[in-house]
Amino acid sequence: MEHNMTYGSDYSFIPAVSIGSGTGREVRPDIWCQTVQIVNVLFVGDPGRPDDWVLVDAGMPRSADAIVAAVRERFGSDRRPAAIVLTHGHFDHVGAIIELVRHWEVPVYAHERELPYLTGKLDYPEPDSSVEGGLIAKMSPLFPNESIDLGDRVTALPADGSVPGLPEWRWVHTPGHTPGHVSLFRERDRTLLAGDAFVTVRQDSLYSVLVQEQEISGPPRYLTPDWAAARESVVRLAALKPSVAATGHGVPMAGEPLAEGLSRLAAEFDRIAVPDYGRYVNDVNH
Asked: Which residues form the signal peptide (predicted)?
């Protein structure tokens, strides 16, 4: 069966910010966080059960080989996930998705409100280089905002909050950064996979990204068009009281630093996260 899967952009320019790329760390015995240039992808599943795991997000463009190599290291040769779950469809989270789907022949799931950006129907708002922030924010117009087209290979996540392939997990709608952004949560051990609803490095700052200076921050400023929704999403995640969190950018956090940082972000979101100025700030009371 032929599937229509195309890119909306050739991704000819990707900034060479790759400190930490190719490294990985175990978040839980069944969760591996792999850094691919400036973003994390997650392997969720027991490495002792190599046919029963799920990939969360799909990294940067041209990173498919690196992701497959990391999977081989974690699960063994010729292993593929039961599914790929996308927290959202920004270029640094779906960069290798088309190659991976072709390589593995597996289904992809995302929130129904994210599907237009994954099936070629809508492009994301353009990155905002005018936003308050560091050098990466100024470089952001170079980042692709076009949709990709996965055709019928992408399906809406179940409305009941369940996550295909991950029976212990549920998805939480956390819009703001994108309309259909989701985070994943496991109640048993209060593990949170937050995507870009919040991150553990100030992503607009080149220095912070290069040295991976750890701080709980709001979603990347230059690609967040709805700050009111982003605030509500952080409050919703803080109420879950996660014990461990892995985010789309930055190193995973746990324990008291996570609890204190996330609580502070929820309580002082406007001061910490919302920029003082920018194209998408005008509608937010802060």
From this structure: none
